[in-house]
Design goal:
The structure holds four protein chains of four kinds.
Chain A: H1 2-24, H2 28-48, H3 52-77, H4 89-115, H5 133-142, H6 145-166, H7 168-172
Helix pairs in contact in A: 1-2, 2-3, 5-6
Chain B: H1 4-38, H2 54-64, H3 75-93, E1 99-102, E2 112-114, H4 122-143, H5 147-178, H6 183-189, H7 201-204, H8 206-219, H9 231-234, H10 244-269, H11 283-304, H12 310-339
Antiparallel strand pairs in B: 1-2
Helix pairs in contact in B: 1-10, 1-11, 2-10, 3-4, 3-10, 4-5, 5-8, 5-12, 8-10, 8-12, 10-11
Chain D: H1 4-19, H2 25-52, E1 60-70, E2 73-81, H3 83-106, H4 112-134, H5 138-156, H6 163-194, H7 199-207, H8 217-233, H9 241-244, H10 250-259, H11 263-271, H12 273-277, H13 280-303, H14 307-327, H15 331-358, H16 371-374, H17 376-390, H18 396-410, H19 414-439, H20 447-457, H21 460-468, H22 484-499, H23 514-523, H24 531-536, H25 540-567, H26 570-578, H27 580-587, H28 592-639, H29 646-666
Antiparallel strand pairs in D: 1-2
Helix pairs in contact in D: 1-2, 1-4, 2-3, 2-4, 3-4, 3-10, 3-15, 3-22, 4-5, 5-6, 6-8, 8-11, 8-13, 10-15, 11-14, 11-15, 13-14, 13-19, 14-15, 14-18, 14-19, 15-17, 15-18, 15-22, 15-23, 17-19, 17-22, 18-19, 18-25, 19-25, 26-27
The chains are: A mainly alpha, B mainly alpha, C mainly alpha, D mainly alpha.
Chain lengths: 179, 341, 100, 667
């Protein structure tokens, strides 16, 4: 149905456009917000792919939590616009040129891979019913239980690590209680 | 393409929009009146009978004002912030049903739900939109480049993030009970029973209701948790620099958020449109009544309770409310497992 | 109906943009953002494949990816803050203390 | 069930090591003794279960888990209870328990944590010993074997603040190691040649062979095992650690000498009776060594002045008897003597401990005397023990020792028999010399001497204690007989020393030789020509005659001692003066320690100091440092790649990605 395709192109356009802007923006705050925009576009694509659960998760966690974190940090550091360090300009310039080339090469490779991949064959297998949240939840807590627990531990570790890394100065002037 | 059902849905959409706007206006009036009564005053009386037109006057006044923008402000974001707030406030309401399915007395060949969109992850949707609402405030505070605004913004965002957790936990408990994420489903799960009342989740989730309302008040930055605009310390918090319509938008957003929270609370705990004595197609009256009561409760609380201290607020949120909500969730889950509720 | 390749191409595009961002930007925070972009590109492929192969694994994996991304962002930003306290800049080229 | 027998003391050990310092003394002691007592009950129960079985399949096995499981080499951590181990566990747990009980009173002057440490070691010791006797294959036995060695080191050196004690501990440990090497070699040889380490399988295998006329594999195994046994059981040439072991607390000496460690060697030979039966030469060696040890140690024992050393040498010589029995193929007799000896030797040690305790650390016989009045219980029980070991008819020692002598004679070794007889004369003599010197006559000392003796003899901990309450220096009026916790074991053991003999009344006296028949399943040896067979068609009359002889000998020995030390106390000094050479030689234990030091220790020391040390410093250290060098160099090289440029890293990662994807696209 064409409507679906139109939506796809709409969201895709949002995603790509905002992402491009994210990369070229010089003001970090704007980058963050644009990235949120791209997330929302992706969420739309997820809905098109009949994964509303992931779509919402995407918005809650990515847009709602992680990006707030970024925004805070940006505001906290009152991030300056692209400070250019003269000293390391040269090799940094060289590496960046190489990097750009490599990125293009990678894109080319991906395109090539697509042209000769067999995925075209199954491109219309997409008439399977969407998965309900309970289905997904049950699989997560049964087959993927271990991964789930591991992730939770990972998050705990990350929390501790982040606090020790960023909150050190607080404890130094011992005002750690509101850290 | 343009069949009656679609028309009906568009109509509903329009209705919700208007209703929200007017409810905001109504809130302004009620707030003033109740405040006045609580303080032994008359409140607005001049404009219209009983000062009923006072909100209108306010809006006109606001619209007439000049829209000032600080020079140092970030133009785009400064303009964007209020829009985000308002938009989030509206979108959150989209998934809230305010009445049973109806065919409008056979006007339609298939019944339509009295709600904008019946998403099957509605709760998560509400949650997501609320979390997006933070941006409006943060950006407002940051972009207007003034210390009061920034402080207010940081405060309120920190506050909202902290209380979102308890908020979500309380929601989760209800999910466990009803087994669905669609708010309509939840409401239907509360129908029936004695006088259509005995099945409300309020009876099963008193603690949850308490947590939800407290967190909701914090989420909407209302007294006694109204730090973002603690006028004694921060002038007006994140919207200090705003004026005219852009200020009106924040204003609007705040009231609509209150309405949304009350509406969700109604649907989750107070059985939505379920109520005694009224035929189902009039259920929306019950819904409005309950929401209205909760809104009154908001105002009542604002003028009764003093404002907390900020660290008290944080301590309360993290050290009391969150653990309590976790326990509540665990107990609920255990109960469901045990009694198979 | 958009078929699988649409999504794959799109994600490839996003991934490349992200890579370019990582390599070209002179601001650590933007670099981190670009990394998030790359992650999302991959997520998109997962979901698309899951959808077109009719399995829910894609969504579950994405669920985990997002969780890990959260952890990664937390630690990464903490590092950025710590670094910023040492060298008053966010330019990755300035973090050269570990030069061998 | 079997598992619990060694496990209980081990649990006690764990409790006392982990929580000991927080436990009160009483609690610590209670834990340890309780564990032993329960273990004793467990042993009794399982032995009963064993006895209820018909004679031929008397065996209980428990496999806890597969310890070593490689393709064709499966070693389970298995316990096996057969008549032999049954006797052993009863001795170990029973007497061990009594010694624990005794220690609670004896060690009461220690600091709480020292106290706990002591009991922890004691329990560990018992646990390992039980593992040793219950093990169903050589490896399990070896664990116990080594563990016992370790615990002996820990316990002998218990008062490690005291130089002598520490050295004695080390000596015991090292000497044991020497034996252990031989033991391991024997086990390995058995495994490589016969392909098994399980006692049952080995016995089954070897029973098929013909006894080796010429010295072969089996003989080699037997010899190596025997050397190991000499290490643990203090036989020539490795007996030297035992007398020094007296530096440890007296109950420990009792435990080591009577119940546990030293009997391990005898047990080992009994356990592998089949192997030895198939190695006649080795058996002869065993017999000769045993006899020689018995004689030599007895001779030294006659002139020692330290009460505990006398007992130590008597232990060595009694062990000599046991090996003699083993050597002539009278395994049952050996085990029987082990059993009885366990009773009266434990009794004697604990008795001497009571004396030392009463005299607050005095150990020199010359400072004793006349204790009969002050320490009645100790005296009478000690007397019973002395009579028993001297072999006075009717008491335990009589039956077992005569059994051995008779077997020896019957096995056609009149020479060995003669020596054994002489030794039993010595035994009777030095025991009663001890009794008379210690208990009869007058006190040859005064408080000061005792105090001095105490100060000189006692390790640091005791000294502190005595300085602490030295308000009244201990002298005759203050002597206190053994407190109940010490008296009870003494009495029990005394009764045991009287009755134990009746377990195996020989047929000649109309007895049924119960123990021998009970032990037969474990010790049954294919009649190897000459030795064991001979016993069968030996006449009772001969046995009777020999018994009379040896009892006369015993009485004679007692008589001589009485004459020399009660009637004419002058004579011994006179004799000592008359033959100073011999006297000095014996008093200094035949200068064996000095000889070993000169022949073995010094050469090794000089070798390692002058040659090996340099080799170590140059070759081995060189190799190690070289490694370090290489690593450092390569690190310095790789360091160049580490530019610290974040971007460069990212680029290289991407480069890798591009390459990999490209590779897969090409192929």
């Amino acid at each position: 149905m064409a409507f679906n395709l139109i939506l796809f192109y709409l969201f895709a356009a949002i995603a790509v456009g905002t992402t491009l802007l994210v990369v070229v923006q010089s003001n970090p705050v704007h980058s963050v917000l644009l990235l949120i925009g791209s997330f929302i576009g992706l969420a739309g694509l997820y809905v098109l792919l009949e994964a509303p659960f992931v779509a919402v998760i995407q918005i809650i966690v990515y847009a709602g939590a992680i990006m707030v974190l970024f925004l805070f940090v940006v505001m906290l550091l009152n991030a300056p616009r692209e400070a250019i360090v003269r000293s390391s300009m040269l090799e940094s310039g060289a590496t960046r040129a190489v990097g750009a080339l490599l990125a293009l090469a990678f894109a080319a490779e991906l395109a090539w891979a697509l042209t000769r991949s067999r995925t075209l064959a199954m491109s219309h297998a997409g008439d399977t019913p969407a998965f309900s949240v309970p289905q997904i939840g049950q699989r997560i807590f049964q087959e993927y239980a271990f991964a789930f627990e591991a992730t939770s531990i990972l998050i705990l570790v990350a929390m501790v690590g982040a606090i020790t890394l960023a909150g050190r100065h607080l404890s130094k002037n011992d005002q750690g209680h509101n850290g | 393409m343009l069949n009656p059902v679609v028309i009906a849905q568009l109509a509903i959409l329009l209705f919700v929009f208007v209703m929200l706007l007017s409810s905001a206006a109504g809130m302004v009036y009620m707030e003033r009146k109740v405040a006045a009564r609580i303080q032994q005053r008359m409140g607005p009386t001049l404009v219209g009978p009983y000062g009923l037109l006072q909100p209108l006057a306010d809006i006109i006044k606001l619209a007439m004002k000049e829209d000032v923008r600080p020079k140092a402000a970030d133009p785009i974001l400064f303009a964007l912030a209020p829009i985000i707030s308002a938009a989030c406030a509206f979108t959150a309401f989209a998934v809230v049903p305010f009445g049973a399915e109806t065919t409008f007395f056979g006007l339609l060949d298939q019944p339509v739900p009295l709600q904008v969109a019946d998403v099957n992850v509605a709760i998560l949707w509400v949650f997501a939109v609320t979390s997006m609402g933070v941006y409006g405030i943060v950006l407002a505070g940051w972009s207007s480049n003034s210390k009061y605004s920034l402080l207010g913004a940081l405060r309120s965002s920190a506050q909202m993030i902290s209380y979102e957790l308890s908020y979500g936990m309380a929601l989760a408990a209800v999910l466990v009970l009803s087994g669905t994420m669609s708010i309509r489903g939840i409401v239907e799960a509360q129908s029936g029973g004695l006088l259509d009342v005995s099945h409300w989740f309020l009876w099963l989730q008193p603690v949850g209701f308490f947590i939800f309302m407290t967190a909701g008040v914090a989420e909407t930055n209302r007294a006694p948790f109204d730090f973002p605009e603690a006028e004694q310390e921060l002038v007006a918090g994140y919207h200090t620099e705003y004026s005219s319509m852009s200020f009106a938008m924040f204003f609007l957003a705040e009231y609509i958020n209150m309405v949304t929270v009350s509406a969700i609370a109604t649907s989750l705990y107070l059985g939505g449109w379920n109520g005694p004595f009224l035929p189902e197609w009039l259920g929306w009256i019950w819904f409005l009544a309950k929401v209205g009561f909760l809104l009154f409760f908001y105002v009542w609380m604002r003028w009764t309770l003093p404002r907390y201290r900020y660290d008290q607020l944080m301590a309360f949120g993290w050290k009391f409310l969150l653990p309590l909500s976790v326990v509540n969730l665990l107990v609920t889950a255990a109960g469901v497992l045990y009694f198979g509720l | 109906m958009a078929d699988l390749n649409h999504y794959l191409i799109l994600s490839g595009l996003l991934f490349t943009i992200g890579t370019a961002g990582v390599l070209l930007r002179r601001n650590v925070i933007t670099v981190l953002l670009s990394i998030e972009v790359m992650l999302n590109a991959v997520n998109l492929t997962f979901i698309a494949f899951g959808r077109f192969l009719g399995s829910s694994d894609g969504q579950i994996i994405v669920f985990f990816v997002i969780t890990v991304a959260a952890a990664e962002a937390a630690v990464g930003l903490a590092l950025v803050i710590a670094l910023f306290r040492h060298v008053e800049t966010l330019n990755p080229d300035a973090f050269r203390q570990l030069r061998g | 069930m079997l598992l619990w027998i060694p496990l209980l003391p081990f649990i006690g050990f764990l409790v006392n090591t982990s929580g000991g310092r927080r436990l009160s003394k009483t609690a610590a002691g209670a834990v340890a003794s309780g564990a032993m007592f329960v273990a004793f009950l467990a042993s009794v129960i399982s032995v009963r279960a064993l006895v209820l079985l018909p004679a031929e399949e008397r065996e209980l096995t428990q496999r806890i888990f597969t310890w070593i499981g490689s393709a064709d080499f499966q070693v389970p951590l298995g316990l096996r209870l057969d008549p032999l181990s049954a006797v052993m566990i009863l001795v170990v747990t029973g007497i061990g328990f009594l010694i624990h009980l005794y220690s609670t009173a004896y060690m009461v002057e220690e600091e709480p944590r020292e106290y706990a440490r002591y009991f922890a070691y004691l329990n560990l010791f018992a646990a390992f010993m039980l593992l040793l006797v219950l093990g169903e294959n050589f490896l399990v036995l070896f664990v116990g074997w080594e563990g016992v060695g370790l615990c002996s080191y820990l316990l002998i050196g218990f008062w490690y603040k005291n130089r002598l004690a520490a050295d004695a501990g080390k000596k015991a440990f090292i000497v044991n190691r020497i034996g252990d090497v031989a033991f391991i070699l024997g086990v390995l040889l058995a495994f490589t040649q016969l392909g098994s380490v399980n006692f049952k399988e080995l016995n089954g295998l070897i029973a098929g062979f013909r006894p080796e006329e010429t010295f072969g594999v089996v003989s080699a195994i037997a010899l190596l095992l025997f050397i190991g046994a000499t290490g643990k059981s203090a036989q020539i040439p490795l007996y030297i650690w035992l007398p020094d072991a007296m530096e440890g607390p007296t109950p420990v000496s009792a435990l080591i000498h009577a119940a546990t460690m030293v009997t391990a060697g005898v047990y080992l030979i009994g356990r592998n009776a089949v192997i030895f039966a198939h190695a006649p030469e080795v058996l002869t060696i065993v017999a000769v060594i045993g006899t020689a040890t018995a004689l030599w140690a007895g001779a030294i024992g006659m002139v020692q002045n330290d009460i505990k050393r006398v007992l130590a040498y008597s232990t060595v010589s009694q062990l000599g008897y046991m090996f003699m029995a083993m050597g002539v193929g009278a395994y049952a007799a050996g085990i029987f003597h082990l059993l009885t000896h366990a009773f009266f030797k434990a009794l004697l040690f604990l008795g001497s401990g009571a004396v030392i305790h009463a005299l607050s650390g005095e150990q020199d016989l010359r400072h004793m005397g006349g204790l009969k009045k002050e320490l009645p219980i100790t005296y009478w029980t000690f007397l019973v023990g002395a009579l028993a070991i001297a072999g006075v008819p009717g008491l335990a020692g009589f039956f077992s020792k005569d059994e051995i002598l008779y077997r020896t004679f019957a096995a056609g070794h009149p020479l060995l028999w003669t020596v054994g007889a002489i030794t039993s004369l010595m035994t009777a003599f030095y025991m009663f010399r001890l009794v008379f010197l210690a208990f009869h006559g007058e006190r040859r000392t005064d408080a000061e001497a005792v105090a001095r003796g105490a100060a000189s003899r006692l390790p640091a901990t005791h000294e502190q204690h005595h300085d602490a309450d030295n308000s009244h220096p201990p002298h005759a009026s203050h002597l206190h007989d053994a407190p109940r916790a010490m008296a009870t074991p003494l009495v029990v053991l005394a009764i045991g020393s009287v009755l134990a003999g009746y377990l195996n009344v020989p047929a000649a006296l109309g007895g049924s030789a119960f123990l021998e028949h009970f032990l037969e399943p474990s010790l049954q040896v294919p009649a190897v020509e000459g030795m064991h067979g001979a016993a069968e068609h030996a006449s009772y009359s001969l046995e009777m005659a020999l018994m009379i002889v040896s009892s006369l000998i015993a009485v004679a020995g007692i008589g001589i001692a009485a004459f020399l030390y009660l009637k004419r106390p002058a004579i011994p000094e006179a004799m000592a003066a008359r033959f100073p050479g011999a006297y000095q030689f014996l008093v200094n234990k035949g200068y064996i320690d000095e000889a070993y030091d000169a022949v073995v220790v010094q050469p090794i020391k000089s070798l390692s100091e002058h040659v090996l040390w340099k080799a170590d410093a140059t070759v081995i250290d060189g190799a190690v440092n070289g490694m370090g060098q290489i690593v450092a160099e390569s690190g310095a090289l790789l360091r160049q790649m580490h530019t610290g440029s974040l971007r460069l890293y990212a680029v290289s990662v991407l480069f890798g990605a591009v390459m990999i994807v490209g590779y897969y696209l090409w192929s």
